Each structure stands twice: as structure tokens, then as C-alpha cells.
Amino acid sequence: MKKWYVVLFTMCFMLSSITIILASEKETGKKNSNNNDQFQLGVEVLLNEQLNALEGKNVGLITNPTGVDQGLNSIVDTLHNHEGVNLVALYGPEHGVRGGAQAGEGVDFYIDERTGLPVYSLYGDTKKPTPEMLEGVDVLLFDIQDVGARFYTYIYTMAYAMEAAAENDIEIIVLDRPNPISGLNVQGPVLDPDYSSFVGLYPIPQRHGMTVGELALLFNKEFDINADLNVIEMNGWDRSMYYDDTPLEWVLPSPNMPTLDTALVYPGAALIEGTNVSEGRGTTKPFELIGAPFITGEDLAEQLNAADLPGVRFRAAYFTPQFSKHAGELSGGIQIYVTNRESYDSIETGLTIVKTIHDMYPDDFEFRAENSAGVSFFDNLIGNGWVREKIEEGASIDEITSRWQEDLQAFKDVRREYLLYTVRTEDIKTIVTSLEESGDILDDNAAHALELHLSAVNQYEKKNQADKVIKHMNGFKVLIDSQKENELITKNAHEMLQAKADAMIKIWE
Fold it and tell me: Which of 104, 171, 274, 303 has CA atoms 20 to 30 A from the CA of 281?
């Protein structure tokens, strides 16, 4: 009996240990995959493979606390201590190089204590590096983590730096990093250039679905910056990956961007900043908590859940912001929970929240005041003046969102030319070959049928015929479904090919 007790205890302990390990892996969001073993950030590719790009040059670095490698080593310290690099100046975006400033706070010139290097602010009065700031610099490096939203200011710090580099005959190198909310979904209205500002400099959508490197290429050509630009790509990242699909730890890109969940809701929830409702600044859940003293949380949650938006639910919540809007006041509202991030539309969700509060509390809700040109900060965020007007006129969300689809599609067609991490028919053919070699494709004729179908799609791909590519890749999905049903390919092959087909369709939509 004692022996059986020991065996049972041992088995329970092992099962408990496995459960803890699996829970830990789920908590951190890390996935054990060969892809992660091969993953490299742009900065790591620079240091490991392309350091000759800095040889014999005085280097200026634009970065912030997110400029780290996978070991969380600061690029500032790494480059400063590297005998093959002559780092001569640092430049900080909003929040500063070391991340000590809150949103909207200016940062003055200072000397970095750790390195003794001059630190120039690129936020506030001077957003573009001046010739004096660039004196003695031969090449600018840009290494900052973006969050995937049009109004996150770091991408315009990059654009202004590119302009300055072009004007002063200096090379600029962008060290690429992931789009944390994936590179597939592109959502929201394209900015009207008449509403250009530092929270929206160029006509791109609210959720642009690009990395900083891809944006740099698009900005450089489409908006005639014409800088001497070099983008150092990542290794091992593909467009379907969210930040927790990578081996990277989350480093706060800014004080109010504490988690990936924040980044996921931000492209839409940040519209609340253009109103008198709190976007959750001053709480532990900025942009996930939304409310005001005049809101009853249960009523708002009920109305928003009744809208049946895809991939999201709302819970009544009460909170007291410690700073920013309604500081020290108990506010009623909601917390946003993304239940399916593939179907979730951040912009439609954010707009629905704004409109619902507007309609429920007409005597209390306000858009931010207009400036002398008749533009509200809400207009700057949404990228036009007509959405605010439509909300005030009582237009439906469908009426509003349908109006921007044509411009959004036009942007997608332009965007496709600048994607560095993409899925092509040749890539899927390579996967078919590897699956055949691994035994996951169980029939030679099945492999041939897949390759034949992909060859046909390739012809439309070469001609840039998006509708034909989408149509025939959907046909490819039907083919692999049939092969799985008839046991010609394994479940693993089916899942892998399905994922790649979905990603390719998304790119061409």
C-alpha cells in the first residue's frame, strides 16, 4: 500500500509540475518554435552581421528604453561600449531616451550620465534634428519599438529624422522591430492631409499593419523624403506574429503602454483622448479602462455588449484616475476585453464606444474644444473632420465606416509594395516541399496538385491582380481541406498551409 501511495504521489507531483510549466508558458506568451530560435531584431542583425555599415563613421542614435536586444541590453550602452562603434550623440523622442517623461512633457538638452554623451530632444519645440544637432554625425541610427497606430508619435520622429538626414547628406539606418499587434490587419480611415499633425503626419490608416522599417521605406518614397535610407530587417518574424509570438520581453514603449493588451486596444481606444471622457490614464489599465464621473458602468457595458462587436466584450468598471482627466474623481465606465484578436476591429470598437457615450450622455459628453481653425483634437486623432460631424448628426457606425473603405483599399494597394515580410506563392511551395520530405504530405499526387495550384496563383501575383490572387488562394484552401478530409495530408500540414494561405489572402485584401 505504501508503494502505491508513493507512486501516486509522484505522478501527482509530475502532473502538477507540468501544469505549472504550461501555465508559465501561457502567461509569458512564449512559444517554443524553431522560428524563435532563429529570431533576430534589426539591432542584432546589425551587430552580428552588418557592423561594417558603421565602420569609420560617427554615429548618432535615436532611441528610447525599447532600444534593447533580446537580452534586454540597451543599444545605447552596447554601442557606447563597442570598440568598433564611435557613438557621438543621442536623440530622444517623446518620453526621452531613458523614458522618464510623461505624455506631452518636453525634455531639455542634457548629458547622459552613463555614457557622457549629449542628448538632444526631438519632442517639443524641436521635432526635427537641426544642423547643429547633427554636426559631426555621419550616420543616424533609429531603433524604437512602435505600437502599430497612426497617432503614436515615434514614427514621425523617424520621418523628421529622415528629412534631416536628407537635408544634411547623412545616411540613416532604421533597425527594424515587430509590429506588436501583427502586420496583417489594416483598419480605420486614412488621414486627410488637411488634418496633418504630429499625431498623424501622413495619409496612412489608424492601424497601419507595418513595421517601422516598412513605414520608413513607404515614407521615403511616397512622400518624397528621398533620404539615403537603409533598413536592417529582422530575421524570423512574419506578419501573422503578435509580440507574444516572439521571444521578446515587453518593454514599455511609453509610460501609458504597459502591456501588449494596451497596444491591442490603443488604435481605437485612443480616440477617447479627443473627448472629455477618461481613457484610463492615471490607472493601471490605460486605454483598457474608459469612463467618466457622469457614466453608469453597468448601463454602458450593457449597451456596448448589445452592439455584438466581433472579438470583444465589455465589463462595467469603476476607477479613480490618479492624474490626467478626472484625477481623484470616481469614474464609471467599462473595461475592454479582447476575446479574439483576429476578428477584433480596434477602430470600429473605439468609434462605437465614443458614439455610444455621446448618445447616452448628450448633456455631459463633449468632444475636445476646436482650435482657431475649427479642428478638435478628436479630428486630429481620427484624421478628418467628418466623423465627428456624423456622430453629432446621429449617423450609424456602419454608415461611418463604409465611407472610408475606398481610401483604405487604395492604401493597402500602395502598402503592399513596401512589405519586407510577406507571404508569396514561392514561399508556400517551399513549405509544400518540406512537408513532403517530412512525411506530412502522404501522397505524391497531393503534393503535385498543391504545387500546380500555387503556380497558377503565381501568374496573378506577378500581374498584381489582387482579386484573382484572393479568389484562387481561397480555392487553394478548399483544396487543402479536401486533402485533409481524404487523409492525403496530415493535420500538421493542413494547419501550416491554412495559416500561410490566410496570411497571403490578408496581404492581398
Answer: 303
